[in-house]
Design brief:
Order of helices and strands: HEEHHH
Number of strands: 2
Largest sheet: 2 strands, antiparallel
Distance between the termini: 34 Å
Helix content: 55-70%
Shape: elongated
Strand order of the largest sheet: 1-2
Number of domains: 1
């Protein structure tokens, strides 16, 4: 069983039981799961911002390194080049990802 599955199960079965004690502060399973979810959302938003900024550069550079063969079926780079462009249009660019990260951290309102 993965840690997140175990934590979700414990949070549902006994949410008010103490999960951790540090410096006299007790943290329940429900509080621990809420904190873990918040951290995971933040990390995912930052990773998305980074990859949405670097991805197009990597695809363009790979196509240039291969002498434009990225647009032929011989190498397969054309798929990733087009997919990165599609994802950027549908899911938003780095600006949108950074806005999601700021929202997840509570820097801007919903």
């Amino acid at each position: 069983m993965k840690l997140d599955d175990w934590l979700a199960q414990r949070s549902q079965s006994c949410p008010e039981r103490t999960a951790l004690v540090a410096d006299g502060t007790e943290v329940t399973y429900s509080e621990l799961e809420a904190e873990a979810t918040w951290v995971a959302r933040r990390l995912a938003a930052h990773a998305k911002a980074h990859t949405s900024e670097v991805g197009p550069f990597v695809a363009r550079t790979a196509t240039e390194v291969h002498g434009g063969m990225g647009f032929t079926d011989l190498v397969g780079l054309h798929y990733w080049f087009k997919r990165i462009g599609f994802n950027r249009q549908i899911l938003g660019g780095p600006e949108r990802a950074r806005e999601d990260a700021a929202r997840a951290q509570g820097w801007i309102g919903n």
